Amino acid sequence: MEREKSLGESEEWPSIEIFDYSTDVCDIFLWDFSSSPRLDSLADIAEKHVRWINVDGPCSEELLNEIGTVFHIHPLVIHNLRNQFQRAKVEEYDGFLSVVTKMIYFTGDALTVEHTNILLGHNYVLTFGDTKGDVFESIRRRIQADARVRSMGADHLVYLLLDAIVDGYFDVLETIGGQIDDLEDSIMEQTTKQHLLQIRAIKKNLLRVNRHIWPLRNVASLMDKESSELIHPETEPYLRDVYNHIVQAIDSTETYRDLLSGLADLHFSNISYRMNEIMKVLTIISTIFIPLTFIVGVYGMNFKYMPELNQTWGYPVVWAVMVVVSIVMILFFKKKKWL
Amino acid sequence: MEREKSLGESEEWPSIEIFDYSTDVCDIFLWDFSSSPRLDSLADIAEKHVRWINVDGPCSEELLNEIGTVFHIHPLVIHNLRNQFQRAKVEEYDGFLSVVTKMIYFTGDALTVEHTNILLGHNYVLTFGDTKGDVFESIRRRIQADARVRSMGADHLVYLLLDAIVDGYFDVLETIGGQIDDLEDSIMEQTTKQHLLQIRAIKKNLLRVNRHIWPLRNVASLMDKESSELIHPETEPYLRDVYNHIVQAIDSTETYRDLLSGLADLHFSNISYRMNEIMKVLTIISTIFIPLTFIVGVYGMNFKYMPELNQTWGYPVVWAVMVVVSIVMILFFKKKKWL
Amino acid sequence: MEREKSLGESEEWPSIEIFDYSTDVCDIFLWDFSSSPRLDSLADIAEKHVRWINVDGPCSEELLNEIGTVFHIHPLVIHNLRNQFQRAKVEEYDGFLSVVTKMIYFTGDALTVEHTNILLGHNYVLTFGDTKGDVFESIRRRIQADARVRSMGADHLVYLLLDAIVDGYFDVLETIGGQIDDLEDSIMEQTTKQHLLQIRAIKKNLLRVNRHIWPLRNVASLMDKESSELIHPETEPYLRDVYNHIVQAIDSTETYRDLLSGLADLHFSNISYRMNEIMKVLTIISTIFIPLTFIVGVYGMNFKYMPELNQTWGYPVVWAVMVVVSIVMILFFKKKKWL
Amino acid sequence: MEREKSLGESEEWPSIEIFDYSTDVCDIFLWDFSSSPRLDSLADIAEKHVRWINVDGPCSEELLNEIGTVFHIHPLVIHNLRNQFQRAKVEEYDGFLSVVTKMIYFTGDALTVEHTNILLGHNYVLTFGDTKGDVFESIRRRIQADARVRSMGADHLVYLLLDAIVDGYFDVLETIGGQIDDLEDSIMEQTTKQHLLQIRAIKKNLLRVNRHIWPLRNVASLMDKESSELIHPETEPYLRDVYNHIVQAIDSTETYRDLLSGLADLHFSNISYRMNEIMKVLTIISTIFIPLTFIVGVYGMNFKYMPELNQTWGYPVVWAVMVVVSIVMILFFKKKKWL
Amino acid sequence: MEREKSLGESEEWPSIEIFDYSTDVCDIFLWDFSSSPRLDSLADIAEKHVRWINVDGPCSEELLNEIGTVFHIHPLVIHNLRNQFQRAKVEEYDGFLSVVTKMIYFTGDALTVEHTNILLGHNYVLTFGDTKGDVFESIRRRIQADARVRSMGADHLVYLLLDAIVDGYFDVLETIGGQIDDLEDSIMEQTTKQHLLQIRAIKKNLLRVNRHIWPLRNVASLMDKESSELIHPETEPYLRDVYNHIVQAIDSTETYRDLLSGLADLHFSNISYRMNEIMKVLTIISTIFIPLTFIVGVYGMNFKYMPELNQTWGYPVVWAVMVVVSIVMILFFKKKKWL
């Protein structure tokens, strides 16, 4: 159960970054809370313009409610914005569409999951993230640079955002894939007690990734022609592309789980092999020397009448017998392929 | 198979708590059986009012039948109210809707499952529980405090009740998650015969939780616009939210099952490791001393003609040979990484 | 593969028990083959009456064909009546409905599966069983005693019959649940070679039960309003109840399978533990005495010049050394937590 | 991957057996290639007659093409007739229906899969098999003997053919079930290295059977009223019966797979048990004699001053001590339940 | 995660091979970039002609964009052409249909996956591959030789291409099947530490093959009559055939996975067997010689008063006792079936 701390614990102002663009124009500015404490004008969007409002960092409940009022967003959606403990999902409401996704990336060895909300309205896109994320950096540049992108509607921007997030999944999966390969090599070299813990750690990451990607398959529901007026028909192939990537990412997690459980087998097999090797050494040493020790024991007995003891050849013959016994044993082990 | 004892074994009066509210008013009172033994007036609800009737504690069959008659509830539903051995489910009947759920919480180490029935009519909600439950306490307070909540219909109250119950699932799952983490630490420290039993106990709890949550996915059926007149369109986003939480809880149980079966692997791996360690000690001691014992056995023989025995250097040379043999063995073990 | 012997091998007359009832009347009689060898009048049912014809025991092919002709039942259904090797199923034909179920109960330790056919016509119910079953005894009594039951149609009788059969499943599942608990205790106490066989036996029973319950989910198809004229709308909630019980029984078999495979793990774990214990004893004894035996071997050598042998303190010092070695070993084992 | 050799490698004439029947008439004859080398008249079927043309043995490509032309069969179907490497399937074409099935039977210990094509036209059925199969023998007799069968259309003949083939599956499954039971007994008696290979062999057969039966579930598609004009409504219950048998056969394969994987567990458990037994013997012998050998070693030492050696009671006391040690050890093993 | 290098890294010209055919004509030529650097005329296709344009080798982005413009292909499809990291899929666009498939074949021991795009327009087919593939060689010949093939539309050509690719899958699966059989033989002969790695390598190949074949089931969507105008009804049986082959290939991968996991069991079982054998040898040798060594130790003691030592028969009697003890031991092992 991961109940991450609620968004908006802190009361400092978030950064509200605004992209206002049409085919010809592209204005970028940060909202100036000192000059305009009220957000009413946030929703005044010029005709044929698209506005992307990216709210980064912790938000107070009041601020979120105000944004909700300005854009006529359902109170439940606003309420859930503050709750990072939500499942990824795609939901349609009257007049807007809510996409809850998770940005996933590795920070060192730890998997970081960042809750990201995307709200799509008729001519605006609202995004809410926890940190000053740079996954969207490339999108910022493309909007500024590419008139074709700017000529497309707000729904195309949602596609770009989803695409950037889903691309991030592949980086994570590639890292996990590399970890699995490394672990395989390490297990083959020298199996240790820690390997199963490492397999477990990777598996936990994989389960976590899977849990966040899996529900995103629902973006497929956006592609249904009748379902939403907010998605233009020309955006559908793009969403289908994102959908294909999501399915591919899910496939990869399945493959990795298979490979991981195979690693556990490899680990157990190696433990068994080592046990075999240990037993083999013990058995070889024991079975060679136990009979020999018996033989020398025989001639260590103190019976008065042991004819062999008085023969000159007794001692060398015993040695000869012992050498023969050893050789027979060694041949037996060779035959058994233990040597 | 858990056939819990039937509700209503005892014949004492249950507590019938009534919330009668509209946007402006909120009356709370307990039904007074001494002054009004007949329940007919229970269904006299003022226009635009919503009435929540919470029946707590054991009910006699006659009382339940009377409630059924007063609210025109299908006899089968009334019959089933007394049967805790029911599956969670959502069912629609003529004029009312029955939601059977299970409150789940930990009482000490034991998982307690409490059967809870919610009946939604046009302007009333009936709830039947076994004990004086306080999961609904927060809802009582909200109804008294929040006019917005009171302005909404009976279906919104059902949402609040479901939400409170489902929130309880997450507490249980968090506890189970903590148990799994503790068990993992304990297994890594010192694997004992009891660990598999503990894994099994957690698994049983998980199976039980899963069995009760799984059928609740059916609340989705309430969200279908045509399906019920009792659910207003504005309640749908809220039910969808509850549905998402249920799916999330189910996801968590799946994840935990995966982690649990991984724990069993860890347990078996640790047993194997310990066996390896035991064998290693045995093998090292045996393979060092068995050849040495053989050597001293040789010179314990009583042959008349053993030239070495009469040499002054005989005894120290044997010691030297034995030291060399020991060192060779130890180097061999070092090479094998057993030391 | 269980191809049980075909019904109707024997040529003796079966018992044909007839319940002819309406709200006011309830006639019960056995068909008298001596006075009326032809069954034509069997289908003469008074208006508003329901007739339940319970055919118990082996039937000849001719008799079945005659019943088929009298009630206009499809020849294939009649043909299949004699074949116990059928799957449980719900099928609709022109003018009647065929429900094939299996009564399941324990006879001692053996699971008995009894093939039961229920045919529902407009105003009659035909049931065919193999033995003089008493699962239906309570239904007989209810028909005689309860006018409300008699006032309902033939489809309600089918509900009562199904309900009685499904209730029997829970008894079987409870028994199996008890067996699993007993086995768990027995495995924890002393794992023997037979336990896996017992797990296997329970699993076979569970597979068998599951195979017979699983297809019964199809009763859901009866609840679809358009599907059948033979089922009245007011019977639907009752059938839904039976359906819920069936799903619950299937859930239980799933849970038990999970618990059973966990038992196999427990069994393997216990074997491993015992091996560990055996190895520990061997290793402790060996590693303490092998070095000691080496030491005494040293002073058993017959070298002429072994200075220690001639010292008065030689013997006690050797003992002292051996005691020290033993104590060191024992401390080592304590540290390893083997003692 | 089983790419069996293509049908029609050889150029010899196949046997073309023709059943031409109506309610009153039943003509059976073999096609005489010497008198009528052209097959045109094969499709001249008298009104209200049904013709079953059973082509047995290898066919040349030309012959198949000619049959295809005569009966207006899609070239792809004709092409596939020669390819035994096809999946079982049910396909509808313009004016005819193609059912590809596999006859499965044991020839000694080997599972034989025989590719069988059934083509259903308006008033004819074409069957293509590889060998002079006698699975259809009973159908030949029924057509000759039973006017009721002859009065039914070509689709009923297809039912009879499918029923005969599916019945064959149960024989195979019963054999496999018997093999599993035998193997279980054999494993319990004396586990050998070969048992896992035998489990594997049975599993391969089961996989093969399953692969051929599984796609046949598609016959269900024939029962859909609108789907085909070639299937009369009165044939539907019969097809449903075949469908039920197929589902039952699939169920059985599932059950057998479960039982088989349980057998592997049994096998591993028995190996472990035997290891336990071996270790127990080793440990008992070792732990009894190693301390005794140490004791006798002590008094084999050659110290000048060992007071015990000179006592008359020394020797018997040592024996007494050794007997006591042995008894203590044996009691210890009894307590551990190793004896 | 396999992100193969992007198509079109190099800037050299690809080979553009053009088949322009109708029932009567078949022109084949390579596009001459030197004489016609612009590709406009590529789309000038004579009436009733079909043009197959096969682009082999790396393409520059500009060239692909130009082809896209000429044939009015959606920019996203053109963009994805350069991305080998795509999932196999079937997608419909306005006026054309995109099929992304993977050619799979073994190059030595390595599995090679070649990304192949097929675009179907009204009267043309565009194919993009990475290398000068010869899987299509047979199709080239058939187009030249077979007027019937030429008389069919562009959609039939797509069928031929898909069929050739899917046929390639069976070759790969047959190779993998052979590898599994070889591995089984090798494991039975002598289990080594490498076998689990080999199982793992085959499993990885199988997962890879499965991942590429699985999404191709979507070709089924082409068979739906309403779905596409580009697919003629007469092509449907052919596509259904391809679909059946794909399903068959997927079935085979499932079967192989089952067999592979059985191999891992076999491997573990063999390790256990060998351990058993080693332990048996150790136990037999130890339990025979340890008691004997004890006996000779007894008579190695130096007690003054050991009556046996002075008897003439002492020594031979001890030998006799030891022979008897050995025989008893050997008989015990015979009874245990260890010898």
Explain what this protein looks like in three dimensions.
Five copies of one chain form a homopentamer. The first copy, chain A, folds into two domains: 15-269, CorA soluble domain-like (Beta Polymerase, domain 2, 2-Layer Sandwich); 272-335, Methane Monooxygenase Hydroxylase, Chain G, domain 1. In chain A, 50% of the residues lie in helices and 16% in strands. Chain A contains eight helices and seven strands, in the order βββααββββαααααα. The first copy, chain A, has helices spanning 61-71, 75-81, 137-145, 147-150, 154-189, 195-213, 236-298, 314-335, and strands at residues 15-21, 26-30, 50-56, 89-93, 96-107, 110-120, 124-129. A seven-stranded mixed sheet of chain A has the order 2-1-3-7-6-5-4. In chain A, a hairpin with a 2-residue loop joins strand 4 (89-93) and strand 5. The first copy, chain A, is rod-shaped, with a radius of gyration of 35 Å. Chain A starts with 14 loop residues before the first strand and ends with a helix. Chains A and E meet through helix 5 and helix 7 of A and helix 2, strand 4, helix 6, helix 7 and helix 8 of E.
